[in-house]
Amino acid sequence: MKRPIKYFSFWDVPRTFVVESDGKLYLLTSEFDEAVDEYPNEYEVFVIPDHKLSAVSDWKSVALLPTTRIGRVSISSVSFDSTHRGFVDDSFLDVVTALNSPFFVIMEVRRFFSQSSALTSLARRFIAG
Asked: Please, how many CA atoms are within 13 Å of residue 6, restricted to the half-sphere of its CB?
């Protein structure tokens, strides 16, 4: 769904912005990496609890708020309006939040252990007690 954003830095796309979706405020950042002299191809995604987009006036109103990192998302998977400054399609959040669900984490752990027979037998002995 198309959601309004407030952005604080811009280079080709918003590099730091907030968006509200399903009653939660999300902060996405893609800060310049001096070591490689480029911007990364991903956003780090954070949730800001108990805040609304309407309460955000500038970067200072966001910078010191408590955040919880929930993952990363490729910049190419985030769709903006034609100006790249007004709206974003929030469907990318479905992927980010799914990757952080307990079910996904359990499935990744199972996949990891199934790739190594030694680890699988170790895990079985640990689970069996």
From this structure: 16
